[in-house]
Design goal:
By secondary structure, this protein is mainly α. It has a two-stranded antiparallel ribbon with strand order 1-2. The chain starts with 11 loop residues before the first helix and ends in a 14-residue tail after the last strand.
């Protein structure tokens, strides 16, 4: 993931959500893939851990991620249809 940039009108949390969604949709993060800890992501992106936690929680609520205390955060094994890119036929 690339460093989150402070864009006018787009919160860092939304930018992080968008990057992770894109990585899931394109297969960079396949189903079951483990994400780095929130602390590690925050350090890599140079943002607050609360910002990363908020983004990960939002994606969990959307059904894209599974978060378990002690086990970490993984991409959901079954993704909602909105997360799967549609093929243009």
């Amino acid at each position: 993931m690339s460093r989150a940039a402070q864009n006018a009108g787009t919160s860092l949390q939304r930018q992080i959500c968008a990057q992770i969604r894109e990585h899931i949709a394109t297969g960079v993060l396949p189903a079951g893939a483990r994400l780095p800890s929130a602390r590690a992501l925050a350090g890599r992106l140079r943002v607050s851990r609360n910002t990363v936690d908020g983004a990960l929680d939002r994606l969990r609520q959307e059904g894209l991620l599974v978060r378990r205390v002690g086990a970490g955060t993984t991409v959901a094994d079954t993704l909602p249809p909105s997360a799967v890119p549609q093929r243009a036929d």
